[in-house]
Amino acid sequence: MVMKLYAVSDGPPSLSVRQALAKLKLPFELVNVDFGKGEHMTTEYALLNPQKEIPVLDDDGFHLSESNAILQYICDKYTPGNELYPQEAKTRAIVNHRLCFNLSTYYANISAYTMAPIFFDYQRTELGLKKVHMALDVFETYLQRLGTKYAAADHLTIADFQLINSTMTLEAIDFDFSKYTKIYKWYNDFKTQYPELWKISEDAMKEIQYFAANPPDLSHLNHPIHPIRKINK
Ligand SMILES: N[C@@H](CCC(=O)N[C@@H](CS)C(=O)NCC(=O)O)C(=O)O
Predict the structure, then answer these.
(1) What is the residue range of 157's domain?
(2) What is the CATH number of the domain that holds 7?
(3) Within 6 Å (CB) of ligand 1, which residues are found?
(4) pLDDT per residue as tens digits for the range 128-166
């Protein structure tokens, strides 16, 4: 049975998995999960992922969430040895490190500033901005110290997808990160060298830009954590 990917159209973790599947030319069925309708908050969805987060991979009944784990799984299972997830211990460790860095710090700090205030009742604060700069500064240092063309090697790896999609949300809100020259170059090189993969990010970026200009009404959602913006109707 062909793999199914439950994905949200503008969610960076979902985009990264789609890019890896596309790059590896692995067939899959894309199941769109409508975040605005709370489709990920149902009891049925919780059977796929008790964390009620998107994406989820369904590989013939094997359900896997956490986009990093999905990226690692599809490479290991379907294309072992592919350079997208290298097997040499040190290179692989750097890929794993960058995936962890993205999850714990880069995406965490950036999305709290870029995405959360678009969809929920959060403000962009000075502290939030400081955290974005901390994340950018660290990533810039990693790129500088390793001196590779991509985030973990001289070629594209699964770590790049996650870091690209986090960075894309900065572009979506017109955040100028050009002073981080290594990041800026790496990001723009990805766009020119992998236009068909960038298109996946770009379409999502346009959606995010639309929502930034037209804040969505999520007042019908009974979200367990995020404060819902009050809309005067
Ligand atoms: N650590 C997870 C995070 C996934 C995630 O945050 N997904 C968002 C959409 S982009 C989500 O499902 N959020 C659930 C919610 O806010 O209700 C991963 O990397 O897969």
Answers:
(1) 89-213
(2) 3.40.30.10
(3) 8, 11, 13, 40, 53-55, 65-67, 103
(4) 999 999 999 999 999 999 999 999 999 999 999 999 999
